[in-house]
Each structure stands twice: as structure tokens, then as C-alpha cells.
Amino acid sequence: MTQEPVIIHTDGGCTPNPGPGGWGAVLRQGSHVRELYGGEPGITTNNRMELTAPIMALEALTRPVLVHLHTDSTYVRGGITQWMAGWERNGWRTSAKQPVKNVDLWKRLKAACEQHEVEWFWVKGHSGVPDNELADQLATRGMAEAMAASRG
């Protein structure tokens, strides 16, 4: 593991929800910065885009590293840090015996996390944290491109 952590901020969303969506991620290690974004022109949800952002950021890393991953999604942070172990034990069912929503992305996120040492942090959205604001701008760009693609 690299000593200096990779600091990642992620965001995602769609308008309307459900609708076309976008995600963004800012990866920072020392003076190195990488910006990633993308979108889904079909029908998606805020939660799917919020999950896609950390998946794409983690999958972009080329070697195992310590990651400090910041998200403004309580759904993502709660799912990965608190609920996932129970979902797996229950055959990817919730405590109410319902199928876990977005199970494809949860499994992909779990696999991406297993390649690294990931510490999860929640950050309040739109609170002036520069890299969170940049991740939001990147997600908005991804969503705009997805919306344009869905029209033409």
C-alpha cells in the first residue's frame, strides 16, 4: 500500500429522478489530480449514479492503495459500511426480506473496494468542500451530456 492516501470525492444524480443521470469523481494524491465523470442517457436513479461514482473512481486506480473516499450519499456510505454484510448473509435481501435494490452495483462496489484499503467518510453536500463541489460539477456535466445523448 502506498503511504499517502488517495483522497476521492464522489457525487451523482439525475434530473428528473428517475431519468438521465450523471456521476463525477475527483481523485487526489499529493499534487496529482484526476477528474472522472460520465452519464447514463437512459432511465436511472440518483442512488445508481451515487453508487457508480465510487465504483468508477476505485476501478480507475492502477494499484492497491489506501483510499479516503468521501461521499455526500448516506445511502452509499451506510450501505457499504453497515448494511452490506447483512445483505450478503441474507442472500442479497434486506431485513424485510425484499431484494436489495441496485444489487449489481453493490456487488461491483464491493469487488472494487477489495482491491484497496478504503476508509469511508460522509461529507455534507453543497457545503463548500472544494473537491465535493467539483465532483458535483463533474456529475452535472455527465448528466448534461447524457441528456443531450438521449435527445439525439
CATH class: Alpha Beta
By CATH, the architecture is named 2-Layer Sandwich
- Decide which structural class fits the backbone: alpha/beta
Low-confidence region ranges: none
Strand content: 25-35%
Radius of gyration: 15 Å
Task: Provide mean pLDDT, rounded.
Answer: 94
Distance between the termini: 45 Å
Helical fraction: 40-55%
Reported by name, the CATH topology is Nucleotidyltransferase, domain 5
> Strands of the largest sheet, in order across it?
3-2-1-4-5
Order of helices and strands: EEEHEHHEH
Largest pleated sheet: 5 strands, mixed
Any idea what the CATH superfamily is called?
Answer: Ribonuclease H-like superfamily/Ribonuclease H
Q: How many domains make up the coordinates?
A: 1
Family: Belongs to the RNase H family.
Binding site for Mg(2+) 1: 11, 50, 72
GO cellular component, one term: cytoplasm
GO biological process, one term: DNA replication, removal of RNA primer
